[in-house]
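Record filed below.
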Amino acid sequence: MAVLGAFCFGLVIGWITHGLLRRRASAADVAAVVAVVGGGFVVALLAPPSVFGGYAVGLLVAFFGYLVLVTLMPGSKWTGEPPGGPMSTYDAQRSGSAEP
């Protein structure tokens, strides 16, 4: 479990760091990375290695689970679809809207 946890931890930290390097990072983004690494450090320091494995696997599941949920939401910036509503005048008239 400790080896799997270390892999999951590295995967999440790598993904977050890649995102930070791809765009300009804000203080909140850097604080999120520090919090994740700090949490892993405290768990690794105070608990047996299997507990760190559980922390890291849970971190991976939560991180990518959230990413999947956000991607599946209608109008998500990840899918590239505009939020709900008419996209053209034709769509507005077809939907019964009074707008031109």
Notes: The chain has one domain: 2-72. The mean pLDDT is 75.
